[in-house]
Write a structure and sequence with these properties.
Elements lengths: L1 E4 L7 E5 L18 E9 L2 E8 L5 E7 L10 E4 L6 E4 L5 E6 L12 E5 L11 E2 L12 E8 L2 E8 L7 E7 L7 E2 L6 E2 L8 E11 L5 E9 L12 E7 L3 H4 L14 E2 L5 E2 L8 E2 L11 E2 L18
Antiparallel strand pairs: 1-2, 3-4, 4-5, 5-6, 7-8, 8-9, 9-10, 11-12, 12-13, 13-14, 13-15, 16-17, 17-18, 19-20, 21-22
Length: 315
């Protein structure tokens, strides 16, 4: 599992690898099958944590940690063997939360709720596991890849929905409590390409939210690039960066939802901001000759981005 570092969210350098030996992904510590799902990276008080799933039967969800991302990571701390897409969140009072999907094939067609428990990140011991959503998503019958953030007095639950193919999308909901109930955002899904037929960028979803040091918000997501109407893609799932407007501009100064925050400048067909009235001195993330691929990011600054407000990566 590759660890990359960037000063500007555009140019990335490989600085290490989090999972390199069987003791980090196999319960018996012996060489064997490995299928890793949706890792989450968090940081607190000098320690980095990766939560992940080895989806091979008999394995499950685990975390590894290190104080030096360029060096060795710990052996796996095993958490549980149910569901997948684990995420970690540390609240201001020091409580760690463990959030994941819970796959259930129900008669009503729903695929189960997002579940959550408190966790001891040193031992992997969980508190009581609780459902924090209804047994479906906020815009579909399914929800996965959940991440919990705290922004001010609100807790935000950001999840992928619609499967990982052309229906892929990202939704958000909020609550005054990390346990819910969560109120769906009025603009859901806030990130998707499912309605843009023949667009070269498709299948956007499984996003993490990142707050940069200048206060701008970005969605770091997975997606694929296709030759027009083609179903195939040659490069597999790639990482995309898209500007989002969260925090005060989403919740409002008095905590009320706003349906939209209108960005400056025009919007390209891919849903990413473009044009000379958008953020100053921005540049393309991909080759500008690809006419639809116009995701942009801020110019280089001599600092690291502040990740996911207080809850996530903090340098």
């Amino acid at each position: 599992m590759t660890i990359r570092h960037s000063f500007d969210l555009v140019n990335w350098q490989i600085v290490g690898h989090a999972i390199t030996r069987p003791a980090q992904y196999r319960r018996d510590g012996q060489a064997g099958p490995i299928v890793l799902f949706a890792p989450t990276l968090r940081h607190h008080d000098g320690t980095f944590y990766v939560a992940c799933t080895n989806a091979i039967p008999g394995q499950g969800n685990f975390l590894v940690s290190t104080t030096d991302v360029t060096g060795e990571w710990s052996d796996a701390v095993w958490i549980d063997d149910q569901g997948f897409d684990p995420s970690l969140f540390r609240d201001d009072d020091g409580t760690w939360y463990y959030t994941r999907r819970n796959l259930q094939f129900r008669p009503d067609g729903f695929l189960g709720p997002i579940v959550q428990a408190t966790i001891d990140v040193q031992t992997g011991e969980l508190g009581p596991m609780r459902d924090i959503t209804e047994p479906h998503g906020f815009a579909s019958n399914d929800s996965e890849g959940p991440h919990l953030y705290r922004i001010g007095e609100w807790y935000y639950l950001c999840s992928a929905e619609g499967g990982s193919w052309h229906g892929h999308m990202q939704t958000i909901a909020r609550s005054r409590s990390p346990w819910g109930p969560f109120e769906a955002g009025p603009q859901n899904p806030f990130l998707t390409q499912r309605h843009l037929v023949a667009n070269r960028i498709q299948t956007l979803g499984h996003a993490e939210l990142v707050e940069a040091a200048d206060g701008t918000w970005w969605a770091l997501s997975l997606g694929t690039r296709h030759p027009r109407m083609a179903q195939h893609h040659n490069l597999g799932r790639e990482t995309f960066l898209t500007p989002r407007h969260l925090g005060r501009r989403m919740a409002g100064r008095r905590g009320t939802w706003r349906r939209h925050h209108r960005p400056r400048g025009r919007r390209s067909a891919s849903g990413c901001h473009a044009g000379r009235n958008s953020a100053p001195r921005t540049r393309h993330l991909v080759d500008p000759r690809m006419e639809d691929d116009r995701c942009r990011a801020p110019r280089a600054r001599p600092h690291l981005p502040r990740q996911c407000h207080r809850a996530a990566l903090r340098s």
